[in-house]
Each structure stands twice: as C-alpha cells, then as structure tokens.
Amino acid sequence: MKFNQSDRRTFIKQATAAATASGAIPYFASSGNSFANQAKNDRPQIGCIGVGSMGTGDAHGHNGFGDILAVCDVDSRHADRAKNDERIGKGKADSYADYRRVLDRDDIDVVSVVTPDHWHVKIAIEALQAGKHVFCQKPLTLTLEENQLIRNACKAHPDKVFFIGTQQRSDKDRFLRAVNMVQKGLLGDITKITCGIGGGDQGGPFSTAEPPSELDWDMWLGQAPKVDYIPQRCHYQFRWWYEYSGGKFTDWGAHHIDIALWAIEHDQEGTGPVEIDGTDAKHPVPYEDGMPTVDHSYNTAHDYAVKCKFDSGTEMIVTSRGDNGILFEGTKGRIFVSRGRITGQPIEENWDEDKFGQEDLVRLYRGKPFEGHKQNFYRCIREGGLPVSDVYSHVQSMNVCHLSAVAARLGRAIKWDPKTEQIVGDEQAASFFAREARKGFEIPRV
Fold this sequence. Notes:
- The protein is of the alpha/beta class.
- The chain folds into two domains: 5-167 and 376-383, NAD(P)-binding Rossmann-like Domain (Rossmann fold, 3-Layer(aba) Sandwich), CATH 3.40.50; 170-363 and 391-433, Dihydrodipicolinate Reductase, domain 2, CATH 3.30.360.10.
- 32% of the residues lie in helices and 16% in strands.
- The protein has helices at residues 5-22, 53-62, 76-84, 99-103, 120-129, 144-156, 172-183, 217-221, 248-251, 253-263, 345-348, 358-364, 373-383, 391-410, 427-430; strands at 45-49, 67-72, 94-96, 110-113, 133-136, 162-164, 190-196, 275-277, 281-282, 287-288, 291-292, 303-309, 315-319, 325-330, 334-337, 342-343, 413-417, 422-424.
- Strands 7, 8, 9, 12, 13, 14, 15, 16, 17 and 18 form a ten-stranded mixed sheet that branches.
- α5 (120-129) links the parallel β4 (110-113) and β5 (133-136).
- α1 crosses α13, α5 (120-129) packs parallel to α6 (144-156) and α10 packs across α14.
- The protein is globular and about 60 Å long.
- The two termini are 37 Å apart.
C-alpha cells in the first residue's frame, strides 16, 4: 500500500484513533526490523528536538523507523552535526534553533525530545497540542507538579502515543525477568528493595564566562532562573544542578525506581510510598531551608540512603552506596539485577523455569509482542495501545524520585499521600511541589 502525504497522515491518525477507541490490542509477529523498510510514503516523518550526545543516539534509532525532516538545538554545533549526519539529517533535514518551528510543521508526525530535563514537559505538552506523537527521554519531569501537568496533557490527547526513553523496560533477560519473578510471587512477599543509583558529581567553585557564540544561553535556561553562564551548568553537567535536574535521584532513579515500582505494582496512579526519609543525605555545598547557599558549584546530593516506606510494609532504599542495580528481598528469596547481570539463588536454580515465557512478555508489553524499545513506540503509533514505557507509570516513578530529592534537601522525613499526590503536614516541604517558571517560559495547563 502506498500513500501520498495526506493519505499517510490520515492513515496514521485513523489507525491510532480506531485502536484507542476500540481498546483493541492486536498481536502481530515481528522481527527486530519491524517497520524499518517500509515504502517512503508509509514511514512516519520525524523532528528531533535536542541533538546533543543522547539526542544523537536517539536520532540514530529513530532513523530506522521514519524519515527525519528536522533537527533542532539551541547549540548550533549540535544542530549542524545532526543535519549532516548520514544517520540523521543526511544533509537534507531542516535545522532550527527554536523548537516551535518544528512543532509548527504539519508534515511532522513524531517528535523526539532529548533536551535538558527542565525543558522536557513544556516542549512535550506543546508537541501534543500540535498533534504530534512524542518520544521523550527520561527523566520526564523536574517537579511533582510537572508530573500532573504532563499526565493531564496525555489524557487530553489519547490518540497520541507518548513514550519514555526508559529502555530497561525492554531488557528481557534481566529487568523483565526480575519484574516477572517478583510479580509471580516467586520471591514471596517483598520486604525490602534497594535501588543503587550512584552518587552525584562534586565540583566547583566554577567561574562565569561569556556564552559561546553558537549557544543561545537564554533559551537554554528556559523556565529556569536567569543566571550568568557557567560552562559546567550546561550540556551534560546540567544534571548536577537542582535548577535543571535532580542529580542521580532523577538520572538513574528514573530507571531503577521505575523497575522497582513496576515489579511491586506501585506504578499506577494513587499508589506509592507514604513516608520518605532523607535524614541520611549529604550535598557538596551548604544548604539552608532546602536551598543551596552558593551558586557556583554543583549542588545535587552525592552521598545518601533515602528510605521510602509503603503501607504494605515494604521498604525501598534509594542509595548512592553499593553496586548500581536493584536488590529485591522477599520472604522466600532475593535477587539482584543490573544492566550487567541478574544473580541470586532463585536465578541460579531457575525458580522461574516454565514461568517466564512469551505469554509473560506479551503481558508485560501490554498485549504487544516483545521487541526492541523504539520498535514498541512505532508499533503503538501504527496500531494504538499503551506502550511499554508509558507516561502514567513513569510519573509514579518520578514522584518517588522528586520526593527523595526534597527529603534529602531538607534532611528529614516527609509524608506523602499517594491518593491526593500531596506532601502533607510539612508546609516547607510542600513548597517544593512546584517551581515558578521564568516569565515567557510558562508550561501550558491542559
């Protein structure tokens, strides 16, 4: 089947809407190259917003499923490199500094958002409003309020697929096996989970400088407070400043906390911990009332063991100490899983033999066949249905990530009501629920 431009867009829209409306979740056998070799007019057309190091890698992946028509970055070096990359723009894509020019284009079906964290939600909501399917890198949000804003936006645009770059949800032999083992009750009742996410960098004091000519520093800052340019605030190092990210709480927490909550089925709205204790946490700069007292050094927590307590009695430790990975401890057994290995007596003795097969993978993939991460995204665009890395489960993980950071910043335990999604009994802690955006960079309310 071959479509012209109008027919192609109508097909994608109608197919997605029909599947969403009917609740149909069809099963199709697939290969690793699903949809990669379609006729040109059948392939989604893509705009890549943010093409630094991670954005470049994601763009290479998107290129296998569609045609990249536009690249965008506030650093012209990144945009130029992506435009001329043979696996991205191929010298033909249009290049922009302002993401709104990408969203304005009616010929773009999908946008990939791989900017610093503090830009994610604003761009993603505006992309949904512009009628685009959205792939957004983790961590999706900067604040607890942003979790609610992006979830509301996705509910308002149910015909659009919104996908998060939490690729551990597509690791069959390690993370999916661990999730299945926990959910099948093979470890017994889970009493304790340890999420080892590493510690943040320490650095500074740093000196201010003139922004390089190729960088639009004001646009890079976006909703964040206006400050003088410090090279170590920008690009990869942005994650060590609470102004733009949450340090390792959100960087690796978005991965490991996500898997932990998925396994114990606390990844749905209304679930989550009821107390988060940040007493055991250190920051590389002095803090007062939860705020850093200097502005020239990295300020995210670097040494911590935050305790999250659930009504069920399960305790989850989010820590910088020990191995990077997740330790599940149950009344029958324990396993450790990371990107490099899955270990423990239940694994060595194959407790899940005959209990982890294709049917289980389809269940975890919400009725879709197991396949690569981006394959699932583009399959859902074609067929409808909820992707394996969906916004609704991800904001539950981000709630815990942000609450861990707030508790660590204040150095005390805080109470959380997962039903109302509010910090309770602590006015100061509750003030961290949202952050006022700089004028001109407000996030749309949907």
